[in-house]
Every structure is written in C-alpha cells, then in structure tokens.
Design goal:
alpha+beta, 2 domains
Length: 324
C-alpha cells in the first residue's frame, strides 16, 4: 500500500500541474502557430485570396472615397468662409456727404476688421476689365454702378455675418446689403446629405463584406470537414476548432483594409496632379488631403472587425452540424 502511494507521489511530482503562466504561454504559442498557418493557407491559394481581398477592398474603398470627398469639401468651405465679405450697395442718388456719413457710421461698427470703399468709377473700371465688353462701356456718360463698401467681419460664422448685414441694412443711404454665402449654405446642406450617404453606403457594403467572408469561411469549413471530425475525436475543443477560421477572416478583412487604404492614397495622388493645375488657375493652393492616421486606423480596424465577425457567423452556423 505504501509502495503504491510512493509511486503515485513520484508520478505527481514528475508531472506537476501546469500553472496559469504555463497555460498562458501555451495558448499564445498556439495562437501564433494558428496565425502563421492561416497566412500560409492564404498564400497557398493566391488567386482565390486575391479575389476575396479585392472584393473587401472595393467595398471599403467606396465609402472611404465618399468620406474623403466630403472631408475635403468641408475644408474648402471652411477656407471660403474664412474670407466672408459683406457688400454694401449705396443708393444711386446718395451724394458725397451721405457717403462720407455712411463711411463714418460703418467705422463705428463692432466686429469689423476692414472696410473698403469702391467708387462708381472704380466699380465700372473693374466691371469693364472682367466683363469683356471692353471699349463699349466708354460711351457711357457716367457710371451706372453704385458706390460700394466691402465690409470684412472679424467673425466668419454665417449667423453673425447675417446679423451684421441686417444691422447695416438699416443705415441711411444703404440700398442693399449682400452676403454672398447662400451657395455655401447649399454646399453645407449637400455635405450633410453626403455624410448620411456615407453611413448608408458603409452599412450596405459592410454587410457585403460580412457575406463575402462568411461564404468563404463556409466553403473552407466544408472542405475541412474530415479534419474537424478528427480534431473532435481526439478531444479538440470548440474554441480550438474555430480558431483557424476566425484568424482567416481577420486576415482577409485586415488585408482588404490595407488594400483599400493603398487604393485611396493612389487615387488622391492621381487626382492632385489635375487639381493643382485647376487651383493655380484660380490662384489657390488647394490640394486634396489624403487619409489621416485616424482614418487609416479606422479603415484597417473596420476591415479586420468585419472579417472577424463574418468568420464567426459562418463558424457558429456550420460547425455545430459537424459531429464525429
């Protein structure tokens, strides 16, 4: 009895139970091995893997391109809004004294950084230079254009500029006050629509990515049915069976996100070559901004997450029916 007890104690001491650290290291080693094998499986079938990755990349790049377009238009609208000006048209019959009084009144306004006066003759000369009528306007006895004050507010918000314009409208000798920002308000409304389109398109194409990954993983599960049965027979757990398929979905999604980021970056570089020429014609330095670090992170993370979720859905659906 004592000999049996001693043998049992020696066997227990020879094979001590694994601690938490040992189990953690073993689990991490298995994860690394599974990830490496999933990469090898992707490389082993380059054509099929490339097709799946490109489907995911296009699905991610389309809302990404719309996001870049909206983001650059918002930046452009911000630059234009920063140069907001209020044009004050003086009444045609206003004399020099009334114009001088209006000038003095405008100078007392708060929230104004610069006031520029344009006389009727200066306005006619500018119109003649820009309109293309040339010498035809020389036959006019006097300028048909009114005197104009250009007021530059120190605040570029549209609401405050509108309030300042309403205040100026009540001054004597003022015929009309114009804030040429209605088109910018329309642009902002279009940008809001664009943001909603990004959300709708992202959801729709995200579902497409889920279906593409899920279908790919489903086919892989069917091809490895015998292998899964053997793993279950030798005691493999459900998590062990699921792991390679989840890593495959994760890799497909991440690689698709990387491909989408590269496609968008190349598109921005290609378009900037033409946009720079157009900007110089308008004496502007506007260029398209590419993906920021946070945008790239969201693209890669979103692709990886969609791939992982798609693989998990396929695994949960199809592995349950595989029993030894």
């Amino acid at each position: 009895m004592s000999k049996t007890s001693d043998a049992t104690q020696r066997g227990a001491s020879a094979n001590p139970p694994l601690g938490i650290a040992d189990r953690w290291r073993g689990g991490m080693a298995n994860h690394r091995l599974t990830l490496t094998q999933s990469l090898r499986d992707m490389v082993a079938e380059p054509l099929q893997s490339a097709m799946i990755v490109m489907v995911i990349a296009i699905a991610l790049a389309l809302p990404g391109a719309l996001f870049l377009a909206v983001e650059n238009l918002e930046r452009l609208s911000g630059n234009v809004e920063a140069s907001t000006q209020i044009t004050v048209f003086v009444e045609m019959d206003a004399n020099d004294s009334a114009i001088a009084q209006l000038d003095a009144t405008l100078q007392t306004l708060g929230g104004v950084t610069l006031i520029t006066f344009i006389s009727p003759d200066e306005a006619l000369a500018e119109f003649q230079a820009l309109s293309g009528f040339g010498s035809a306007l020389n036959y006019l006895d006097e300028s048909p254009l009114p005197a104009v004050f250009v007021v530059q507010p120190d605040n570029v918000e549209l609401e405050l500029a509108g309030q300042l314009a309403d205040q100026i409208q009540g001054f004597p000798s003022v015929d009309q006050v114009q804030v040429d920002m209605q088109w910018l308000q329309r642009l902002r409304s279009m940008l809001e629509i664009g943001e909603k389109l990004i959300t709708a398109l992202g959801i729709a194409l995200g579902l497409g990515v889920l279906l593409a990954v899920a279908n790919t993983v489903r086919l892989t599960i069917q091809n490895r049915t015998d292998e899964i049965i053997v793993i279950r027979l030798v005691g493999g757990t459900d998590s062990y069976v699921r792991r390679p398929f989840l890593y495959s979905g994760l890799l497909f999604g991440f690689t698709g996100g990387v491909s989408a980021a590269v496609m968008l970056s190349l598109a921005v570089v290609w378009l900037n070559s033409s946009i720079e020429v157009l900007s110089r014609l308008y004496e502007s330095r506007f260029v398209l901004q590419g993906l920021s670090f946070s945008s790239v992170t969201m693209l890669l993370g979103g692709g990886a997450l969609l791939g992982l979720v798609g693989a998990w859905l396929a695994v949960q659906r199809h592995i349950r029916g595989i029993e030894p």
